[in-house]
C-alpha cells in the first residue's frame, strides 16, 4: 500500500467515524501496535459483539462459538458485501467506543497491521477476506 492510499484510507475512516476519533488530550500513551483481528479473545468477546448488534440480535441470549465468529465477521463487514477489505480491517483496528482511551497510530503502523491481517486471512491474495477464508484461518491458527 502506498502512503497516498493510507492517507485516503485514514481520511475515509475518520470522515465516517468521527465519534470514534480521540483527541490528543484524551489519548493513551503510544504503544507498539500489533493486529488482534481474529484473535480468539476478540472473536469470543460477546459483550463487544452485542454492543455492535444490540438492536438486531437477542443480547440476553448466550452465544456459542459459531455465532460469535459469525457476528465478529459481520460487524467488520461494514458495507455488507460478504467480504472484509483493507478499509474495514483498518476501521476495526482503530475504533474505540465512547470513553475508551485509544493510543494514536501512525499511518505506517496501520499499514503494517492491515497488511499482516490480510497476510494471515486473505488466502487467495485478492485483497478481500471471505467468510470461508476467515473461518479457515481461525481453525488453522487457533486464534
UniProtKB/TrEMBL annotation:
Keywords: Calcium, Repeat, Signal. One of its GO terms (molecular function) is calcium ion binding. SUPFAM superfamilies: EF-hand (SSF47473). It comes from the Eukaryota. Gene3D superfamilies: EF-hand (1.10.238.10). Pfam families: EF-hand_7. Residues 109-143 form the EF-hand domain. PROSITE patterns: EF_HAND_1, EF_HAND_2. Residues 1-19 form the signal peptide. InterPro entries: EF-hand-dom_pair, EF_Hand_1_Ca_BS, EF_hand_dom, MCFD2-like. PANTHER family: EF-HAND DOMAIN-CONTAINING PROTEIN, MULTIPLE COAGULATION FACTOR DEFICIENCY PROTEIN 2 NEURAL STEM CELL DERIVED NEURONAL SURVIVAL PROTEIN. This is EF-hand domain-containing protein. It comes from Bursaphelenchus okinawaensis.
Amino acid at each position: 500500500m502506498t502512503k497516498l492510499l493510507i492517507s485516503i484510507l485514514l481520511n475515509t475512516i475518520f470522515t465516517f467515524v468521527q465519534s470514534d476519533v480521540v483527541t490528543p488530550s484524551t489519548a493513551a500513551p503510544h504503544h507498539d501496535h500489533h493486529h488482534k483481528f481474529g484473535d480468539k479473545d476478540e472473536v469470543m468477546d460477546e459483550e463487544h459483539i452485542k454492543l455492535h448488534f444490540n438492536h438486531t440480535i437477542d443480547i440476553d441470549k448466550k452465544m456459542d462459538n459459531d455465532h460469535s465468529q459469525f457476528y465478529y465477521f459481520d460487524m467488520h463487514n461494514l458495507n455488507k458485501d460478504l467480504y472484509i477489505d483493507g478499509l474495514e480491517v483498518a476501521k476495526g483496528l482503530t475504533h474505540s467506543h465512547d470513553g475508551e482511551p485509544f493510543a494514536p497510530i501512525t499511518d505506517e503502523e496501520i499499514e503494517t497491521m492491515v497488511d499482516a491481517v490480510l497476510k494471515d486471512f486473505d488466502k487467495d491474495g485478492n485483497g478481500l477476506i471471505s467468510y470461508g477464508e476467515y473461518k479457515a484461518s481461525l481453525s488453522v491458527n487457533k486464534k
